[in-house]
Amino acid sequence: MKRNTWQREAVRTALGESTGFVSAQALHSSLREGGSTIGLATVYRALTDLSEEGEADSLTQDGEALYRACTPGTHHHHLICRTCGLTVEIEARAVEEWARSVAAEHGFTAAEHVVDVFGLCAACSRVADSPVTP
Q1: Contacts (Cβ under 8 Å, ≥6 apart) of 72
Q2: What DSSP state is assigned to residue 62?
Q3: Which of 72, 86, 89, 125 makes an SS bond possible with 121, Cβ 3.0 to 4.6 Å?
């Protein structure tokens, strides 16, 4: 585990206050707007460390790494709104069973997987389905 510095704690706190996945640049901007002097490279390093230690989830969307605070030590999956970024952690026993079965069927052991389901949350679905008035 890495040493806990004020910069790392600032990134951890800011990430925990985000409602969905966020880029390092967006998190850095948010920190700077709040008066922090933290550098962008430091934000990237802290996010990478938090992700490696299981304190943050990461995914790549449109070629950009995005991060979100998560519950450490738990294996979970995500439902992610493509419009607003709302993210919900979910358990998916059927996915777990399928992954183990497919891995074993092909002779794989110690298989790991990541499942993120993208769609529209209820609020964004309502907006998308509402008629546009001129």
Answers
A1: 53, 54, 55
A2: T
A3: 86
**pLDDT grade, residue 129 (50/70/90)?**
confident
Structure-token match 């389905």, residue found: 129
What the block records as the tokens of 28 is 């850095």
Are 117 and 79 in contact, with CB atoms under 8 Å apart?
Answer: yes
Chain position carrying tokens 């074993």: 104
Beta strand 22-23 with 64-69 is antiparallel
Q: How far is CA 91 from CA 8, 39, 76, 77, 118, in A?
A: 29, 36, 5, 6, 15
pLDDT per position as a tens digit, 16-53: 998 788 999 999 999 999 999 999 999 999 999 999 88
Q: What pTM did the predictor assign?
A: 0.69
Single-letter residue type at 54: G
In the numeric block, which tokens belong to residue 89? 């952690």
Token representation of residue 29? 């901007």
Residues 43 and 13 sit within 8 Å (Cβ to Cβ)? no
Q: 63-93 burial string, b = 16+ CB within 10 Å, else e?
A: eeebbbbbeeeeeebbebbeeebbbeeeebe
